[in-house]
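Q: Sequence in, structure out?
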Amino acid sequence: MTLLMGAVAYDPKTVTIWAGFRAWLRARGLPFDFLLYSHYERQVEDLLAGRLHAAWNSPLAWVRADRMARAAGRQVRALVMRDTDQDLTSVVVTRRDSPVATLADLKERTVAVGAVDSPQATLLPLETLRRAGLRRGEDFRVRRFDSGTGLHGDHVGGEREAVRALLAGEADAACLLDANHLLFGREGTLPPGSTRVLAQTEPYDHCNMTVADDAPADLAERFGELLLSMSHADPGARPLLELEGLTAWRPGRTTGYALLEAAVGGTGFYDPAGRVTAAEYAP
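A: Exactly. Output:
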């Protein structure tokens, strides 16, 4: 039997990445192959339908897979995750010269966010605003930039457009991944000193390798062991790790998804059984 994994092709390099991993894993005796998807919803559905054994899932895809599994009396688990997927934060920023000094000052103002399905640039920051007592549509307006819908924010297009709207005066605040706030400064999208951070989310985790309970146990365990054994010091493994944006694989954990679970529940993005119920979402 071959262990079959799904991955979403958010970028052309996805083919290069997983073809490289396939060769590396097969050279170590693991029968492994992968399928590419255009969006996460189909990938999650195929995982729970038994057409995949594992799925390289976004955090939002993990939430859906877990809900679907629980509703069916089944289980999924986070096998491994990248070191760079742990303890991330998102920020709500405003212009340096803005009169907005606190989140409370966003009342009657406009907040720019990423795509409707972006955890880091939409769901998580808006949950932080909700916990601060701000009601979307009542206390503040949302301007959304739906770039790459279905990719769960695995790109920076929506975030980049959100900060551009902020700089153009079309929004009073913008939401984005903290790391992208720094990236946009380095690349020139955000001129030095042009923004201030109003709020930062609680730390959260991003992607994980989700394994279904009907996956062949011996192959799944070997898959996890091999990924965890990859060393950045190994010249054969280093290019693959760098392409996938990590220095080391870590054992999977699910404790970093509590804030996203709350955001999904508060917005009704998925229902308790994992059905897509978000308005204006068409992957």
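Residues 123 and 155 are 15 Å apart (CA to CA).
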